[in-house]
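Our preliminary data section would be incomplete without showing what the modeling component actually yields. Below, a chain of 118 amino acids is followed by its predicted structure, encoded as tokens that our downstream tools consume directly.
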Amino acid sequence: MVTPPNNYADVGVSQKAAKQVLLSFFGTIASATFLLVGSSAAFNVVGKQLVKTNKKRTGRKCNLCDGLRFISCGTCKGRGALEWQPIREAEMERVCLCPTCSGTKMSKCLRCVGIGYL
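Predicted structure:
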């Protein structure tokens, strides 16, 4: 019976080669993913800006907000706060901040989605 020689030096070389192949493969995948995500985000920003400029140039002003992009909050009716009573006939009047506008008294126009043009 013939026994194979104990040559462990080749195992280290093959492990290094496999490591280099895997690193280059995953490095390529990572760089391609980064490139695709980055270019997609850039195209998204540019596309939104083009749509907005085109609407401003060719569209008409929103008749709900008159092109101002914001309207009075419908939840608090432009007061910025809501009267809230957990108990009927309470002696103290409680006021809480409007959850829709966060106290700014304005909300984004829903017809033009805050662009100001249709």
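The two ends are 88 Å apart (CA to CA). The chain is about 40% helix and 10% strand. Preliminary results of this kind motivate Aim 1 of the renewal.
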